[in-house]
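Predict fold of SatD family (SatD); 210 aa.
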Amino acid sequence: MVEKYIAVIGDMVDSRGVNRVSSHHALTDSLARVDAGSVQSLHPTVGDEIQGVFATIGDAFRAMHQCRIELMIRGADIRWGIGYGEIVTIDPKLDIQDGSGWWNAREALNQLVSVEEKAGWSNIRTYFYTEEKERSSFGQWILPLSHMIDVHMTRLNPSTSTTLRGVLRGDSNQQVARRLKISPAANSMRVNDNDLRPLAAAMKSLWELP
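Predicted 3D structure, encoded as tokens:
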């Protein structure tokens, strides 16, 4: 029996309009800081894309959120296509895989690009697709919640993204302020003004999903 997994494809946003070398460095630096559990960690593939395989949707969201925050700190952004289904290894030596998990992740990414073009939807960064009934609940409430998180994150500048990372890690206010070379009061105000604590709580709720 072929096992089913969460397949993720990431695609850099507006990558054609930036320096490709600096964009690649931002991506590799960001991936090195992702510590979420995975079957196959997020890694570059072709062009501006990355991909990874996860046992749970929670692990996938944790990796996607961590990677996106690191990219935003570096002035870049990424969109995600998530698929659920079978993943088959065609050639272990060349790391060539196939299966419905990858087809669905690609379809999700294609649908996301189309949705982003609609008025009021340009700031979402995540989409999901599967034909498997056991994951049908995803589209009912998990995806809408992830879209609200997407939109909130998209509005953050690089410095505030660093503050969000600190909140998610449980760093003290003083630690984050020192890292950003600002006063603790300024960092605390940033947390409150941008509602970073409820944002972090929503993100972590997705990280716990099976």
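The chain has one domain: 4-154.
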